[in-house]
Amino acid sequence: MTARQLGMVIDLNKCIGCQTCTLACKSQWTDRDGREFMYWNHVETRPGKGYPKDWEQAGGGWDGDTLRPGRLPRLHEDYGYPAEFGYEVLFEEGEKPLRPKEEMAWGPNWDEDQGAGEYPNSYFFYLPRLCNHCSNPACQVACPRQAIYKREEDGIVLIDQERCRGYRYCVAACPYKKIYFNPLAGKSEKCIFCYPRLEKGLPQACAYQCVGRARHVAFLDDQEGALHQLVNQWKVALPLHAEYGTQPNVYYVPPLSPPKIGSNGRSLDEPRVPDEYLVQLFGPGVGAALEMLREEMAKKNRGEASELMDLLIAYRHGDMFRLDRPREVV
After folding, report:
1. Is the distance from CB of 218 to CB of 226 less than 8 angstroms?
2. How many CA atoms lie within 13 A of 213 on its CB side?
3. pLDDT tens, position by position, 139-155
4. Which of 21, 129, 257, 276 has the greatest number of beta carbons closer than 10 A?
5. Which CATH architecture has domain 6-84+105-320?
6. The pLDDT of residue 330 is above 50
């Protein structure tokens, strides 16, 4: 157990899929050799197969008190190694398409904006993903070298690069497949929740650079922080695949949905994004969370006060990050 747990809430109603968070992370942490295919933070389209491909079917996590078996994602088939392009065609006469030199099977954002459903009721939404810095991390238990640990002061999960031998049991054990193996270094690597930034009073790069102000960062025990309010008080922020048993500390405000359009062109009393799909991702609390969001939005639209909407709107960027608040005295 750690003394405190830092976490993040991501409002999916404000994520526009711009990938600014991805670029902020990529340019700061994974732009070096052996990390070309690594995306410690990325945004994938839902419904979709995600990154790495079909990660939800790759196993890992917990079955009660027992680790569930998991498989390793394949570099080219599931991650999709960055392609080399034949740029020489740009200097040749005639219009020729710029294509990869080798055929690709998958890659990040391969199925971006495809979603599901048929016109006029097609739908999709964006799902940012990063290491959840779980309270019950399967990766930590799976490591035979005891190279994975949680920091006492904030609960961030890290890999001791001196102890790691690259056995990759952690990669298989993580049900979110957010641990990567660096083939050049021979080590496993993952999101470090930007702890060097946090130690200087700066929020994570992905959160700070989010143009939609969709990410809130705070300690779970900080009763004035967004995390406690959205997760425990308003109960509109939910974990992704809580059934994996890892107790993730990245939470999501589920997306509201426009209504379906009937054959007569009129709106139906049925959401375009199926409730059962959101339950599959975020659990049975989705219905109550969405209803709470609708009620508070209606209050705001009527000109009434809504603390929840004010919190989610995030009028002041700096108020979204509470990194150095003292622990609440109960």
Report:
1. yes
2. 13
3. 999 999 999 999 999 99
4. 21
5. 2-Layer Sandwich (3.30)
6. no
